[in-house]
Design brief:
This protein has about 110 residues and is an all-beta fold. It has strands at about 1-10, 35-40, 50-55, 65-70, 75-80, 95-100. The two termini are about 35 Å apart.
């Protein structure tokens, strides 16, 4: 079994200027960017950006993939040969991502 994935981050929306008439609880909170994984390149939004980090996919032939912040994908994930007692878990069910360097202009 093999699949293609795209990994990217979406920067936060530009903050709204608070209206002087807003109550304190009405002021929108600051937002963080978000990291996404998808299996269809058509779903990657225009504002998406590549990210630095390590993609981990236990059960894949290449269980750890370094992302250099230059490409969002596609990244080929292929299931490793299953052990007899491995079960039928989905290849993507345990995907995780560890950011290793913040995008330009951002800090962790």
């Amino acid at each position: 079994v093999a699949t293609l994935i795209w990994v990217y981050w979406v920067p936060p929306d530009e903050p709204e200027e608070p209206d002087p008439d807003w109550e304190e609880e009405d002021v929108p909170p600051d937002e963080d960017g978000t990291v996404w994984v998808c299996t269809n390149g058509d779903q990657v939004p225009d504002e998406a950006r590549p990210i630095n980090g390590i993609l981990r996919c236990p059960g894949a032939e290449n269980a750890e993939i370094s992302l250099d912040g230059r490409s969002m994908g596609p990244i080929l994930l292929r299931a490793a040969r299953a052990e007899p007692d491995a079960g039928g878990n989905c290849l993507l069910s345990k995907v995780s991502f560890e950011a290793t360097q913040p995008p330009d202009g951002y800090v962790y």
